[in-house]
Amino acid sequence: MDFNNTRYIPMSRRRRIYEGKGKVLYEGPEPGTLIQHFKDDATAFNAKKHQIIEGKGVLNNRISEYIFQHLNDIGVPTHFIKRLNMREQLIREVEIVPLEVVVRNVAAGSLSQRLGIEEGTQLPRSIIEFYYKNDQLGDPMVSEEHITAFGWATPQEIDDIMALAIRVNDFLSGLFLGVGIRLVDFKMECGRLYENEMMRIVVADEISPDSCRLWDIKSNEKMDKDRFRRDLGGLLEAYTEVAKRLGILIDNERPAGSGPVLVKS
Ligand SMILES: Nc1ncnc2c1ncn2[C@@H]1O[C@H](COP(=O)(O)OP(=O)(O)OP(=O)(O)O)[C@@H](O)[C@H]1O
Ligand SMILES: [Mg+2]
């Protein structure tokens, strides 16, 4: 398939497959493809907290593109094909494994709360956790026993998912360390990609400051969605800084719709 010739489909004529809290999925230009559209909605605590942060979708689209393209380049299979515009990317349609896979390097958030480990404590080794994707239940944590017993994934698929999670964690940790950011933890989703009678597990959804905990190495300042969860303010500025450090945005580039632009009189 030649994805460089993706024809432009006007928004109004596209078939909307799914609208989630942060993204919309549209039918793609070829069978087996989708268009992933990043919205500006920020949600937390199972959508009990909700706010529009203008420009967030643009930044997440760019940051997620950067990460997924690099994962593809180092041979970690993902759903990502290419970015189409400011808010959209072309992806392969997968059968999402109904799990949120969380990898933790440093104690924070629910791990700190549940186990009484002070935030910021380096963990003895990286820890992988699974949560069952179910908004009604509040995405409960589950074990491999639950996953196999209820048929959400097979033991082989769990092995594949854990191997992918470790590779993604190693790549992201190094990537962020190189730009002065500590990767505390992140969430990823996986899917089954069917290609000529074959099935393999690939990384899907997004990886962005919405789904990672990123702390500045020197100041420990939070550069991720905790700024919204904890009402710290400055979310857009923090995401912009992440993008700049990764070399995605040139210094004075602004994401479209990020607020009023100063005009010299
Ligand atoms: N390549 C893909 N093929 C099919 N579905 C995908 C793919 N990548 C991501 N998805 C799914 O698309 C949806 C993206 O929307 P969004 O992240 O806004 O959902 P959400 O509100 O967070 O809900 P969810 O709990 O399902 O993640 C998610 O349900 C995600 O699992
Ligand atoms: Mg989601």
Automatic annotation (TrEMBL):
Its EC number is 6.3.2.6. The keyword Nucleotide-binding applies. Residues 17-245 form the SAICAR synthetase/ADE2 N-terminal domain. GO terms for biological process: 'de novo' IMP biosynthetic process; cobalamin biosynthetic process. One of its GO terms (molecular function) is ATP binding. It catalyses: 5-amino-1-(5-phospho-D-ribosyl)imidazole-4-carboxylate + L-aspartate + ATP = (2S)-2-[5-amino-1-(5-phospho-beta-D-ribosyl)imidazole-4-carboxamido]succinate + ADP + phosphate + 2 H(+). Keywords: ATP-binding, Ligase, Nucleotide-binding, Purine biosynthesis. GO terms for cellular component: cytosol. The keyword Nucleus does not apply. Gene3D superfamilies: ATP-grasp fold, B domain, Phosphorylase Kinase, domain 1. Coiled coil: none annotated. InterPro entries: SAICAR_synt/ADE2_N (IPR028923), SAICAR_synt_PurC (IPR033934), SAICAR_synth (IPR001636), SAICAR_synthetase (IPR050089), SAICAR_synthetase_CS (IPR018236). It comes from the Bacteria. Pathway: Purine metabolism; IMP biosynthesis via de novo pathway; 5-amino-1-(5-phospho-D-ribosyl)imidazole-4-carboxamide from 5-amino-1-(5-phospho-D-ribosyl)imidazole-4-carboxylate: step 1/2. PANTHER family: MULTIFUNCTIONAL PROTEIN ADE2, SI:DKEY-6E2.2. Belongs to the SAICAR synthetase family. This is Phosphoribosylaminoimidazole-succinocarboxamide synthase.
